[in-house]
Design brief:
It is built from 15 helices and 12 strands. It is an alpha/beta fold. The structure holds pyridoxal-5'-phosphate (PLP).
Length: 401
């Protein structure tokens, strides 16, 4: 292993596209070009003394892949470079990341405040799982900063939010919420999936912990599940380190390798998917079959000023409400040929979903109404296809309703 093959990128201030290709790389003695995939559970020690030293922490080598693995480590380091985080732990899925980030830092009797517009499984963790362990939780409309302030109690330990939200693409003022969290002595956890690490930097805005489902844009090609929790070295050491080692939500090296390859192309994919989303959102806004388009990149987004302030792009997702209710939404989805019906997002393939009957079907009708999800709401995740083909596909399906 030469110095040159291994030293290039660490701790540098290179721009994101460069970091996504070179960041975190650690080459074996063979000097391979591509990141190596270390499909191993464990590691061999040269002697009993070496094993002892490693377990004592006197030697920093690997011990067991539930704790850390060289391929997973490269993925964590590359994500740290992109996010500007000191440390991270990669997980088997986005939900493993969300539940670890929340559960590792609270005790029975503590209180957690979360914005109510949440991915279904996140909502279940907050609303159902945490109370089973004696953790009190409060769900609020997170778009109004006063609600965060009012929800704080003496025992509030953590805040949780997603922004933009799923599926209505509401935007929450991360810097504003972080200030309230700091004053309350609580840690703000941001699920940054919809914005991606390229379009929004929660840590720079004052959040303490960022989580991702890497299943979405980071893989971006529909291949594997993954997730990651990023924060300060101090927070990871104090709260996540032991939780992670002993509960075992670890990412497989194979998936870490796939996600490393995904990161290499993340900037070009996001740029193109976002350009496609912008063109499609403008087209939909003019169409008579569409009642309302919500796209954070448009000037008519209800929080366009906040989008300008905290995001560097409008994301790859569009929500829109059809004229005519559930039948119109279903007829539209069924009439599409290129755009596929699927609840995943961030993929190279354009995907459409009807939240009321899929991702958000477990919510009571009043709760859906509160979140702005109607029977005529559809969510489009814009892919990498030629945008003119996508518009022709949408046009045909709308004409056939
Ligand atoms: C998909 C998603 C998750 C969960 O991620 P998985 O990888 O499916 O476990 C969490 N939060 C948001 C916002 C998501 O879109």
């Amino acid at each position: 292993m030469t110095d040159k093959s291994n030293s290039a990128i660490r701790g540098s201030n290179l721009r994101p596209a460069t970091q996504m290709v070179h960041g975190g790389i650690s080459r074996s003695q063979f000097g391979e070009t591509c990141e190596a995939m270390f499909l191993t559970q464990g590691f061999i020690y040269d002697s009993a003394e070496a094993a002892e030293a490693r377990f004592k922490g006197e030697d920093t080598g690997f011990i067991y892949s539930r704790y850390a693995n060289p391929t997973v480590d490269m993925f964590e380091k590359r994500m740290c470079a992109l996010e500007g985080a000191e440390d991270a732990r990669a997980t088997a899925s986005g939900m493993a990341a969300v539940s670890a980030a929340l559960l590792c830092q609270v005790n029975a009797g503590d209180h957690v405040v979360a914005a109510r517009a949440l991915f279904g499984s996140c909502r279940w963790v907050i609303e159902t799982l945490m109370p089973q362990f004696g953790i009190k939780t409060t769900l609020i409309d997170g778009t109004d900063l006063e609600n965060w302030q009012k929800a704080v109690r003496p025992n509030t330990k953590a805040f949780f939010l997603e922004s933009p939200t799923n599926p209505t693409l509401e935007v929450i003022d991360i810097a504003g919420v972080a200030q309230i969290a700091d004053a309350a002595g609580a840690k703000l956890v941001v699920d940054n999936v919809f914005a991606t690490p390229l379009l929004q930097k929660p840590l720079e805005l004052g959040a303490h912990i960022v989580v991702y489902s890497a299943t979405k844009h980071i893989d971006g090609q529909g291949r594997c599940l993954g997730g990651i929790v990023l924060s300060s070295a101090e927070w990871i050491e104090e709260y996540l380190h032991d939780y992670f080692r002993h509960t075992g939500p670890s990412l497989s090296p194979f998936n870490a390798w796939t996600l490393l390859k995904g990161l290499e192309t993340l900037p070009v994919r996001i740029k193109q998917q976002m350009a496609n989303a912008g063109t499609i959102a403008d087209y939909l806004a003019e169409h008579k079959a569409i009642k309302r388009v919500i796209y954070p990149g448009r000037a008519d987004h209800p929080q366009a000023d906040l989008v300008q302030k905290q995001m560097s792009g409008g994301s790859t997702l569009i929500s829109f409400e059809m004229n005519g209710g559930k039948k119109a939404a279903f007829d539209f989805e069924n009439g599409l040929e290129i755009i596929q019906i699927s609840n995943n997002l961030g993929d190279a393939k354009s995907l459409i979903t009807h939240p009321a009957t899929t991702t958000h079907k477990n919510l009571a009708e009043e709760v859906r109404a509160e979140l702005g999800i109607t029977d005529a709401t559809v969510r489009l995740s814009t892919g990498l296809e030629d945008v003119q083909d996508l518009i022709a596909d949408i046009d045909n399906a709308l004409a056939a309703i």
